[in-house]
Amino acid sequence: MNPRWMLCSAVLLCAFVATGCGCGGGSESSSIADYNGQKISRDEYLKRLETLSTVTVTINGQTVSAQLAEPLSIQAMRSLLTERALLEAASEEKVLPTEQEIEKEKKDRSTMQANFLTKLQEAGLSKDDIDKLLMVDLAREKLLTQGVEPKTIEEVEKFIKDNPEQFITPATVTFRWIVVSTPQKKAEVDKDLAAGIPFPDVAAKYSEAPNSSITKGAFPVESREPRPVPVKSLQADLLKLIEETDQNRRSAWKAIGNRQVMVYVMSKTKEEQRKLLEIEKEYLRRQLTMQEGQAAIDLDKLVLDRLLKAKIMIVPPYLKKAWEEYKSRLEQQVREREQPGSTGQAGNAGNAGDSGANTGTQGGNN
What we know:
The structure is a single chain. By secondary structure, the protein is of the alpha+beta class. It has two domains: 15-158 and 276-337, Triger factor/SurA peptide-binding fold (Orthogonal Bundle), CATH 1.10.4030; 171-270, Chitinase A, domain 3 (Roll). Helix content is 46%, strand content 14%. A hairpin with a 2-residue loop joins β9 (254-256) and β10. The two termini are 23 Å apart.
């Protein structure tokens, strides 16, 4: 684990958690949508999630389709089994987090990141779901730090001083954009803007960027409203266009690939060195202690061994077959680990404690 400034990204959730597979956040309704009177059932929706072969992701500010290495159904099943093994280990070691510890963790993370709970709730998680995810996080931490000398605040201060680049708030930009592929559309955009029609309305009408008709050209494209993005995450040509455009101004057109792009820059922030709050330093101290623990405790091996010894019954045939294949790979990893000359490192048992949702925080009131 790399103890970068506040370590984990804010909240990426497995679709199965958000829809009730594995946690209790699902809707009680038997349908999740209605198209012209035709119901889309919850079962139909979940089956589509299970069998998706591609997903939409954002890379460097660009939306692309990515091929899944494995179906989501298999990844979710493995994650849930790994979580059970981790919590079982914590229970037997008498380090299972208490309700009070979970509530304190929830409060602390909300202090470091104001929208911590909001993001989880918007993804469909209930209070019980969130508590369960935090329990897994804390159980993992406790298992890794058993018998480990806790880091001190003095060591934290030294780490901050020695690694200033990890505690920088990056320069950001908030903007809307219009993307068109034909001269005719480009001319229509210019005509409407010259007539005084607001940039968001023109973007909704003409832009070919994903979701623009709904988001009015908001960037990033998966967000309903524009939100700050690190400038270094932008593709080079788009970044150059942003740099050439002042705040509260729209840019000239710029050819990017085979399309014409115009942006309206709403706000910019400069890169700055962050001064950590005391609560953030304490969180970092815990991360550094965990890093020390990882060098001494092979948590993946602990979980792997439990998965192989546990009595696991998989009901759906397609998941049962996938589990048997995965179990065979784990057994092979154990045999290789026991060979003379082996480093003794366990294979990855699905990232011990990976509950299908990243509940870490970046800190700060973003």
